[in-house]
Amino acid sequence: MILHSVQMGEGSPIVLLHGLFGSVRNFGAVQKALADPAVLERFSRLGIEITTASPDEFQKILRADWDAAGQIVKASGARIE
Questions:
Q1: CB neighbours (10 Å) of residue 33?
Q2: What predicted TM-score, i.e. pTM, was given to this entire model?
Q3: Which among 14, 16, 22, 12 has a CA at the least distance from the CA of 3?
Q4: Which of 25, 50, 79, 80 would you label with 38, given CA atoms 20 to 30 Å apart?
Q5: Is residue 15's pLDDT more than 80?
Q6: Are 68 and 30 in contact (CB under 8 A)?
Q7: Closest Cα to residue 32, out of 55, 16, 54, 48?
Q8: What is the DSSP-derived secondary structure letter of residue 18?
């Protein structure tokens, strides 16, 4: 799996999965929303933790999630039809 990243701006980094959650054009709007304490509190109440990671760390997280999900799907016997 190859991840492409764009680093821009200063301050705390934020990671978006381009194509999954939106396009590169909305980075600023998402960054602004995630800087709002009320938004962070709402995520927290939902059990969602906003974290940061380097591109390499993020790739490791995605790989581990992909592998874990693959094992679950394989064990379930699910098939694409």
A1: 13
A2: 0.45
A3: 16
A4: 25
A5: no
A6: no
A7: 16
A8: B
